[in-house]
Amino acid sequence: MALPLHTPDSRFFATKGLTLGGSQKPVSLTNTISQGDLSSILIEKMPSLGNMIRVPSKKTLLMDEWNTKMEQIIREVAYANVGSLSGVPSWMLHLIKGVLQHTGREDLSEVWPQLEVFFHGGISFLPYREEYRRLISSPRMQYRETYNASEGFFGIQNDPSDSSMLLMLDYGIYYEFIPLAELDKEHPTAVPLEGVKKGITYALVISTLGGLYRYMIGDTVTFTSTHPYKIKIVGRTASYINAFGEELMVFNADAALTKVAHEFGVTVRDYTAAPLFLNEEGKGRHDWVIEFEQEPEDIEAFALRLHKQLRLENSDYDAKSYNNMTLLPLKIYVAPAGTFNAYLASEGKLGGQHKVPRLKNDRSLIDHLLKKIGN
Question: HEC states along 102-124?
Fold first, then answer.
């Protein structure tokens, strides 16, 4: 993963690394014990050397109230010599725009001329890629995905030209993989690493030196290579829609939405989708709530184009949509700016490592959002 392999002129260790992590707060029973996101625990336990090459300060990063924390981070980092970014794409984008507004610039390369890499994870980078490229013009800029969770560190994108990640085999983790098609079976097949095949979607199961035994962490992956083992995260075991046999996964939704947003010249901030059953017609559709940076001029045309692109991305979705046999064209509800942040705040999950479920097989989240935005 060493940057000099691809950029021999790298100044990585001569600059500051900007980390945007979660928050900590004392547990109510005692002031000597804290709780927080994994990222905040890593910051708390960071060796002194790491603190010397990182911004903002440890005190600021561990602040509890997210909005106050973001304002303080912007003040601390706006004029620092930042060379790398680390965090969740959605929240880092929010920080970048805050820095640009604070400095009066339109291009982050003007604020931080030596910026060269963004280490990202937590959610798919695909819907945000174009906006990052728009705001960071430097041709030296790289984007590297990492697969880090509370349960372990699983993968690193070791090649900037390949979006898949190298599976970490020597971090004290034993891997097993359950084919997604068997996940609901009473006795599903648990495939060892040496038995995996490319192109199949698996639920990831781990046993670790930390004490987890055959623990399903909730992510689904597919292998792009078995020599070496390289993976892509394609969704969550609880984040999909299969109400009509369409088996829509997050990676299908991300890919389709990214392509259509690019065609319409708009940027998506956040989204979620869920099925709607139309009992009288014996059919159904998908409802989407999307928060745009810039809204399409014709939202119905955007929705129809997205429906068509999903058919191209997913053969099951296409089959169920044929002649409107089972699945009707989707409907989009446009959410006002701040809708998804307000939802996360109401759940006590604003900032850090928290993210909105992209797809749900029930309407609990989307009905809540539609009520909030008056639909």
Answer: HHCCCCHHHHCCCCCEEEECCCC
- Two tokens at 113? 């001329």
Predicted pLDDT at 52: 83
C-beta neighbour count of 216 within 10 angstroms:
14
| Res 353: pLDDT | 62
Task: Please indicate, yes or no, whether the overall pTM of this predicted structure exceeds 0.90.
Answer: no
**Residue 135: is it exposed, middle or buried by C-beta count within 10 angstroms (0-12/13-18/19+)?**
middle
Q: What is the pLDDT of residue 2?
A: 47
Residue with tokens 């600021």, as numbered in its chain: 60
Residues 6+ apart with CB under 8 A from 82: 15, 16, 17, 18, 55, 112, 114, 115
Count the Cβ atoms, other than its own, within 10 Å of residue 131. 18
Long-range contacts of residues 33-37, Cβ cutoff 8 Å, at least 24 apart? 36/62, 37/352, 37/353, 37/354
Q: How far apart are CA 106 and CA 328, in angstroms?
A: 41
> What is the amino acid identity at position 340?
F
Q: Are strands 82-87 and 16-19 parallel, antiparallel or unpaired?
A: parallel
CA separation for the pair 360, 364 (Å, rounded): 8
Residues recorded for the chain: 375
Query: Which residue blocks in 185-292 are alpha helix, DSSP H?
Result: 250-264
* Residue segments in the chain with a per-residue pLDDT below the cut of 50: 1-2
Cis bond upstream, residue 192 (ω within 30): no
Tens of pLDDT, residues 94-135 = 899 999 999 999 999 999 999 999 999 887 888 888 899 999
Cβ-proximal residues to 220 (8 Å cutoff; 6+ apart), any chain:
180, 201, 202, 203, 204, 233, 234, 235, 236, 237, 249
pLDDT score at 150? 83
